[in-house]
Amino acid sequence: MRKIGLTLITFSMILMSTNVSMAHPGRTDANGGHTCRTNCAKWGLKDGEYHYHNGSSTTTTTPKASPEVAPKDSSSSSTSSSAKDTSSLKADKIKAPAKGKLSVYFLNVGQGDATYIKTAAGDDILIDAGKNDAGDIVVNYLKQLGVDDIEILISTHPDADHVGGLDTVLEKFKVKAVYAPKVSHTTDTFKDFLLAVKKEGLTIKEAKAGVTLPLKGVTAKFVGPTKSYGDDLNDWSAVLHLAYGSNSFLFTGDAEKKAENDMIAAKETLKADVLKAGHHGSVSSTSAAFLKAVAPKYAIISVGKNNSYGHPAATILNRLKTAKVTTYRTDLNGTVTAVSDGTKISFLKVK
Ligand SMILES: [Zn+2]
Ligand SMILES: [Zn+2]
User: Fold this and answer.
1) Going by CATH, does the domain composed of 102-349 fall within 3.60.15.10?
2) 196-235 per-position pLDDT tens digit
3) Hey, which of 40, 235, 299, 335 would disulfide with 45, CB 3.0 to 4.6 Å?
4) What is the distance in A from the centroid of ligand 2 to the CA of 160?
5) What angle do CA 67, 72, 78 make, to 5 degrees?
6) How far is the CA of 22 from the centre of ligand 1 (A)?
7) Residue 319's CB: how many other CB atoms inside 10 A?
8) Domain boundaries in the chain?
9) What is the DSSP letter of 295?
């Protein structure tokens, strides 16, 4: 973990101290961009990554023909695209939760994840809060919904597109309990989160398979992580299974295939009506075996418009379609709200 932190810091320093547009080799093609072939990491690119140079910055896109290799989302790998993803984003206008029902809001925060849950008993749960600059947007959403305090706040894993906005939420709301997996990260974004938890006078409770949340009227249980995953932050994701009456939801964070297989092998409760597809619909997650184990009727992909990661992957969209799973996406549908009365689920979309 220390190694990854140092690598990230060194990597960011290289990015900061290098004028990418000046000396980066390679001829542009007819589209005005080109594919990186040599020393790509030095330029903040992946090997074979297609990108454009404009003035003093480099923007990257994933060409359609390239294999869908998703980069690990960290604060450093999103240097050139993070501002673009959320800076123009405003909070959608959304409806307050229905009394006596369970409402689950897959909040549109651009590239990243933020899910708010209001239980029928009136408890508030927040899972992640998008990137740093999405913090205010999440606070706006929670105010629109009349949230007074947050009973349970969950940080699925330390990546910036999940943990980024949580410090802002912790500053603005009274939070009663924070759950996170036992993995650390040395980025400032993650440190800000830890500091905000400390300021709130709380200590983090460990999120891992088998831990149950103390909530009335619902059964909320972590089904992952089932193991330790070293530097693989995505596989460390806290995965929550929530059941209300005969309806159920599975919130997967960015858990990838390895973690998915481990949850299947550990015989965790995975079956759910609604699946928040892992890792923004990347090909790294929602494996065929995992989709079979969850057997959802609905899937939600939380993803930014024109994000530079190539999320969601066509393979995953097709896999969901073939399995007859109705899929909603925050980049196309805005904030997606699922309302359950304990026997049936209905969906509200912004678009
Ligand atoms: Zn992510
Ligand atoms: Zn991640």
Assistant:
1) yes
2) 999 999 999 999 999 999 999 999 999 999 999 999 999 9
3) 40
4) 8
5) 100
6) 31
7) 19
8) 2-66, 102-349
9) -
